[in-house]
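A quick aside before the break. I want you to see a complete sequence-to-structure record at least once, exactly as it would be stored in a machine-readable document. Don't worry about memorizing anything.
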Amino acid sequence: MQRMKQRLGRQETQMLAYLQMRRQRLVRTGDLTSPLRLSRLQERELFRRMARGKLIARVRPGLYLVPDTLPLGGAWTPSPALALDALLEDRRGAYQICGPNAFNRYGFDDQMPTRIYAYNNQISGDRSVGAVALTLIKVADERLGGTETVTGPDGAVVRWSSRARTLVDAVYDWSRFRSLPRGFRWIESELAAGRVRVAELVRLTLRYGDVATTRRIGALLEQLSGPGAQLNRLARALPETSGSIALNPGRPKRGSINRRWGVVINAWR
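That is the input. The structure line, written in tokens, reads:
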């Protein structure tokens, strides 16, 4: 484990003072050579020392995040929102926190993830910025949305998948998030408590789901609340099919068949 740099040298002090005076949170290779009168080699070594000393956070090669002020003790790591903003701003992309983090945020699951999961339209794979571990899930632009925003204590705006969007994603992305059949129970509980409405769930399913998601949510809602106008909206969006899928894809496809949705109603409670 790298030890935190305990004392700031002249170059480190000058760098932080210059960037904080300019209110500059992101710094790139080449930004400091002229104002601090550094050679390229000196600048590269300065960045290396600062990152190893946990005074700045490396976003990618040649791009670093800098704190507004150093905390007591000197060690610093960005918030998840700052890390995500830096990564996606660099690529001119957009993101929203989703999956296990959203499950925990809305009280569906009490397990606190050790990583930040985020849909985005630019980057796929695992990344780290400072101590923030990220799993970035690249999606098409049209799959971004259904969000709410929260401003963090550092002023960064955090974009979260909304409560209802998170329920849709629990069904849509069940394999990645291992969220079924739990997601069905979350939907049942949220509808019963009035925190999510059928109309909102249907709207987001039509916008961000796929055929399998629409069929599963349609069959589930019919079980929970019976037929209605909102379910007719879902049914009209489906292509005709003679095949069937399991409501709970993690269990054998055995049970009664709801032919309207082409779904085998197997165990999910």
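Two observations worth writing down. The chain has ten helices and twelve strands. Residues 165-238 form one domain. We'll return to this after the break.
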